[in-house]
Structure formats: C-alpha cells, structure tokens
C-alpha cells in the first residue's frame, strides 16, 4: 500500500467487447438500454473506474459498492454489475446507468474480467506463490530468473505490480480480479512469457484469483498470522490449500520443511513435487546452504533427476536460498530446463535479484549494518534474527512495532522472539491505525519482558526517533534489524497515511550519525 492512491497497469490497446455479448455469455439480467454499448475494462472501486469500464458494485464491510454508482458513471463506467440489492441502490444513485444483475458480483467478477480482457487466451506461463512468509521474495526471484533467461516477465506482489521494467506500487497483496486480469492483458501486449502472482489466503477466500488456472503453484510455509481474518490456523491453512486444486492450478511445488507443508502434499488435489532445506526430511528437491555473508547466500539445489546447480542470491539468510530454490523448481515445473537455468546463473555469477524492503541493506561499508525488513510475523522475526546473528561479531539491535487493527494475538510472541534473539530491543509504533499505539507497544513489551526480563529494552514511540536511538546504540560490528516497514512509504495513523519511508530515513539517520549510507 502507498501514501497516494495506487495506480494500475492496464492494457494500452484494449479491444472493446459488446456489453450485450457479456450479458448473454453470463446469463445476466439486464436493466436499462445496453444495445450499442461496449466494454473495455472493469473496476471494483468507483475511484478506479476509467472510461469504458464495467463498474462492479459489491457489498463490503462499510458500504455497498452500488452506492457509489454515480461516481463510477461520472468516471466513465458504461454499466454496473451488481447483486439485486445493489441494483436497487444503483437505480437510486445513478438512474441512467444500465445495470447487469447477478446473485454475487464478486463471485462473478473473475470470469467476467477474463472475458472482457480475453485472458483465457493467455499464453504466458502463470506462477502462483502462497504461504505465510516468502511469497513476495519467491515471486521476485521467479521474475529475476525469467529475465535472466531472456524471457519477458511480470509479477504482482505486496510491493509492486511489474511488467518488464514498468512498475506501479501495490494496493492489496493480491489484486482484485478486475485489476489482475487487466495486468495479464497488459502483459500479453508486451509478450510476457512468465508471470508470478503472490496469492494471499484472503485472495483465495475473496475470489481475487478467479477466472484463471495457474500453471504452477508454489507453497513456502505456514506460521502464525492473519488470525483476525481466520478463526484458527486450521482455517487459515484450508484457505491456502484451495490453491492446490485443479480449479486453481495444474501442478505444484510444496516446501515440506513444515508440518503444514507435509500435510498439504497429502491433501493436494493436483500433482505436486516437494522441496526441503532439512537434511532429515524426504523430498524431491533438496536445498543445501553453502555460505551466508552480509552480501549473499550461496546454495546448492539437487533436482529429482540427479542434476544439481550451485549458485547464489544477493540476499540475506538461509530462507532466501529456500525461496530461490522454490523459484527454480517452479520454473522447471513450468517447462524450463534446469540446464538452461544453470547456464544463465553461471554466466551471471548468481541470480541478480532485488526485493524491495526484504532484509534490504541500507548501510554503507563502515559502521553498523542496517537492514530494513518487511517481517511482521513471529516466524519472520525468528528466521531473520537467526540469519543476521552469524554475520556480525557484535550486537544485534532489533527495532520493531506491530500493526494496529490486525491480528493482535501475534504481538506477545513477536516481542518474545525479538527479546530472545536480539541483544537490545527498541519498540516503536508501526501503523497504529485506529488503535491506541501505547497499548500495542505494551503488548509487545509484555511479551519481551516475559521471555527475557533482563534484556535491554527501549520504548520510543516515534519511528524516526527510535531509529536514531538504535543507531546511537550501535557501532562498527553491530547490526540493526528494523522489522516491519519494508518497502512501504507511509505510516498509517487513524486512517491517515503519513509519508514515511524507513529506507530513506535510515540512510539519512546513518549519514547524520557520520556513517556512509
Ligand atoms: C477486509 C477486506 O478484505 N476489505 C476489502 C474490501 O473492503 P471493505 O469490505 O471494507 O469495502 P467497503 O469500504 O465496505 O466498500 C465496499 C465496496 O465499495 C467500494 N467503494 C467504496 C468507497 C468508495 O468511495 N467507492 C467504492 O467504490 C469498495 O471498493 C468496495 O468494493 O474490499 C476492498 C475493495 O476491493 C478491499 O480493498 C478491502 O481490502 C482491505 C484493504 C484489506 O486490508 N484487505 C486485507 C484483509 C487483505 O486482503 N489482505 C491480504 C493479505 C495481505 C498479506 O499478504 O499479509 C491481501 O491480499 O492484501
Ligand atoms: N521462506 C521464508 N521463511 C521464513 N521467513 C521468511 C521467508 N522468506 C522471507 N521471510 C521473512 O518474511 C518477510 C516477508 O517476506 P516476503 O515479503 O517475501 O513474504 P510474504 O509472504 O510476501 O509476506 P507478505 O504477504 O506479508 O508480503 C521477509 O522480510 C523476511 O523477514
């Protein structure tokens, strides 16, 4: 998400389709005159409607989208697709706007958007990645590898939507189906051969990836998160498992390091191949980390057919090797020969991946190492602290907060893991949204105190000041991990997104402290 409204990548030369044809194809009830109307796109938010769009009005938590029919019409919508309740609302709000009625407009949207954008004729290989942590990373690694192979590539992630070199900042992790199909249509215009999609559990639950079948689905891991949206880990798992069905994907690659991954293999309804980083776990693909430095992680991948590849990623931590290996295995499952990948990575001396805000180093060659990370789950904290510890002789200083209005049950555990794994913790504010920021900090601190009562702990509400405090405590040979903000460029307080880039601020704070950055 961004401080300013995210823009979207859409086809530049859409071929209009008849609205009458759409109504007939989907058996939609029509209210109003649509005889000569043509449609070129679809949008689920009135503010995102462009001329020629079908506006899709769905009920939400706060409002019914059909209530915004007038704004959609003003922006150029040719008609509204909505349910019967929405039809009555639309008639009141924008009597001139034709209405197409369907029982559940959100459920219809994927197929409708695919029809409008002709994405059922898609020729790019589609890769979907799900799991709690690592989705964005794997999607960027797939994109990086495809480009390395000389193939046109695209991606959608929490950080960006990207087609070739063209990128826009993301709103949701997984776009609504209207945006996703428009992206794929744009990708087809520029001959993208492979496209990576980060698929959240919410996307599967909310029809966002409807209207397409992925060629390869990948699974990273499943750990505590989103227990505000799902009532239990079981329910959260079941939402993710949905990706491994023939309606959603043709084949899969499952990381079996976790119990959830092993269970998924048994319950998948599509053929899957397995991957592990653990020596004592059975799997088709095996990943062995060879070397970890502050600049790169080197690893070996053993394929099921006996071939192997040794390479590196300019990313920190064993899990980036796991993420890169998953990307490689998914490409192989998608039809790319492993030897071709091996030649490309050997030629370039590794995989040239850049993942915005994922354990991203902002410090220079003197002073403390400073990494900005997007980790906001207990497991991401744990794994990243583990990855960083061996990189420095000195202390690990961890700076973090926790999202307001999101899963509150993970906070104590996040505090505990930080206090156990770091030498100094600095607790700050991170998107308090509508919650009392002091209460969020108190939950984190309670978790930290319970786990490591003697740990040096600083509570500094303002993130800018907190970062300066962390830097003032650090010297050469120490590392600062600032977990949470990652690539983001805002700090959300009470519904207002204030401009704030942790990466820029950290570089400035380092320079102010006399270190290069
Ligand atoms: C809880 C949830 O899923 N909310 C989603 C929902 O919003 P809502 O129900 O609150 O919508 P609402 O405000 O009642 O409005 C209803 C409808 O009217 C439309 N509207 C509203 C106002 C207006 O002026 N014009 C207009 O058209 C809205 O676009 C919406 O379609 O419909 C919106 C429109 O698509 C989504 O943006 C919004 O996602 C919110 C931002 C969200 O945070 N979702 C989270 C749960 C989420 O999906 N997260 C996952 C996982 C992240 C991860 O990887 O960790 C993700 O994929 O991002
Ligand atoms: N394979 C992994 N296992 C555990 N932790 C990981 C893994 N990969 C990345 N991480 C950690 O999780 C954080 C988020 O990584 P990434 O953005 O790739 O995951 P994600 O699944 O896309 O998360 P989100 O959906 O919240 O964007 C990283 O910044 C890092 O701290």
From TrEMBL:
Keyword annotations from UniProtKB, A to Z: ATP-binding, Cell cycle, Cell division, Cell shape, Cell wall biogenesis/degradation, Cytoplasm, Ligase, Magnesium, Nucleotide-binding, Peptidoglycan synthesis
The protein's Enzyme Commission number: 6.3.2.-
Record flagged with keyword Cell wall biogenesis/degradation: yes
Mur ligase C-terminal domain mapped to chain residues: 357-485
Any GO BP: regulation of cell shape
Modifications after synthesis and translation: Carboxylation is probably crucial for Mg(2+) binding and, consequently, for the gamma-phosphate positioning of ATP.
Annotated Mur ligase N-terminal catalytic domain residues: 41-112
Cofactor: Mg(2+)
Localization in the cell: Cytoplasm
Pathway the protein contributes to: Cell wall biogenesis; peptidoglycan biosynthesis
Signal peptide: none
PROSITE patterns according to UniProt: FOLYLPOLYGLU_SYNT_1
Domain Mur ligase central: 129-330
N6-carboxylysine PTM sites in chain numbering: 240
Residues that coordinate or bind ATP: 131-137
Keyword presence, GTP-binding: no
Main location per the UniProt record: cytoplasm
Top EC class of this enzyme: ligase
Classification via InterPro entries: Folylpolyglutamate_synth_CS, Mur-like_cat_sf, Mur_ligase_C, Mur_ligase_C_dom_sf, Mur_ligase_cen, Mur_ligase_N, MurE/MurF_N, UDP-N-AcMur-Glu-dNH2Pim_ligase
Binding site for UDP-N-acetyl-alpha-D-muramoyl-L-alanyl-D-glutamate: 44, 46, 173-174, 200, 208
GO MF, one annotated term: tetrahydrofolylpolyglutamate synthase activity
Gene Ontology CC, one term: cytoplasm
Pfam family for this entry, one: Mur_ligase_C
Role according to the record: Catalyzes the addition of an amino acid to the nucleotide precursor UDP-N-acetylmuramoyl-L-alanyl-D-glutamate (UMAG) in the biosynthesis of bacterial cell-wall peptidoglycan.
Protein family according to the UniProt entry: Belongs to the MurCDEF family. MurE subfamily.
Protein name: UDP-N-acetylmuramyl-tripeptide synthetase
């Amino acid at each position: 998400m961004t401080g300013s409204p995210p823009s979207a990548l859409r086809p530049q030369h859409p071929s209009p389709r008849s609205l009458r044809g759409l109504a007939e194809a989907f058996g939609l009830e029509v209210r109003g005159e649509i005889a000569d109307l043509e449609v070129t796109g679809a949008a689920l938010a009135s503010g995102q409607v462009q001329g020629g769009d079908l506006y899709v009005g769905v009920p939400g938590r706060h409002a019914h989208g059909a209530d915004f029919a007038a704004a959609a019409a003003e922006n150029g919508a040719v008609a509204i697709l909505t349910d019967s309740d929405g039809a009555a609302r639309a008639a009141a709000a924008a009597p001139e706007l034709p209405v197409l009625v369907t029982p559940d407009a959100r459920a219809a949207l994927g197929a409708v958007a695919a029809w409008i954008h002709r994405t059922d004729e898609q020729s790019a290989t589609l890769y979907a990645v799900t799991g709690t942590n690592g989705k964005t990373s794997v999607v960027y690694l797939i994109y990086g590898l495809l480009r390395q192979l000389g193939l046109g590539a695209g991606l959608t992630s929490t950080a960006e939507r990207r087609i070739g070199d063209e990128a826009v900042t993301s709103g949701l992790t997984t776009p609504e189906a209207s945006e996703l199909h428009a992206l794929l249509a744009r990708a087809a215009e520029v001959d993208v051969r492979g496209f990576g999609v980060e698929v959240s559990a919410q996307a599967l639950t909310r029809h966002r990836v409807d209207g397409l079948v992925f060629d390869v689905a990948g699974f990273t891991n499943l750990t505590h998160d989103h227990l505000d949206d799902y009532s239990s880990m079981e329910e959260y798992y079941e939402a993710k498992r949905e990706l491994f069905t023939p309606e959603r994907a043709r084949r899969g690659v499952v990381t079996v390091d976790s119990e959830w991954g092993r269970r998924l293999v048994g319950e998948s309804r599509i053929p899957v191949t397995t991957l592990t980083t653990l020596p004592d776990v059975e799997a088709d693909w095996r990943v062995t980390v060879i070397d970890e430095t502050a600049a790169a992680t080197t690893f070996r991948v053993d394929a099921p057919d006996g071939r192997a590849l040794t390479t590196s990623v300019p990313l920190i931590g064993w899990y980036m090797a796991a993420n890169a290996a998953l990307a490689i295995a998914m490409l192989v499952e998608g039809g790319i020969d492993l030897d071709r990948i091996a030649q490309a990575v050997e030629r370039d001396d590794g995989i040239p991946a850049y993942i915005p805000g994922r354990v991203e180093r902002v410090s220079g060659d003197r002073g403390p190492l400073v990494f900005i990370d997007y980790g906001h789950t207990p497991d991401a904290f744990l794994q990243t602290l583990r990855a960083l510890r061996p990189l420095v002789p000195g202390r690990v200083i961890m700076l973090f907060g926790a999202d307001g209005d999101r899963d509150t049950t993970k906070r104590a555990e996040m505090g505990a893991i930080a206090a156990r794994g770091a030498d100094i913790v600095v607790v700050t504010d991170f998107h308090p949204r509508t919650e009392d920021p002091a209460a969020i900090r108190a939950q984190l601190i309670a978790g930290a105190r319970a786990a490591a009562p003697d740990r040096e702990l600083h509570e500094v509400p303002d993130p800018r000041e907190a970062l300066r405090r962390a830097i003032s405590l650090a010297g050469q040979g120490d590392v600062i991990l600032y977990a949470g903000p990652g690539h983001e460029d805002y700090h959300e307080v009470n519904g207002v997104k204030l401009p704030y880039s942790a990466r820029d601020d950290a570089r400035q704070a380092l320079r102010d402290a006399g270190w290069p950055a």
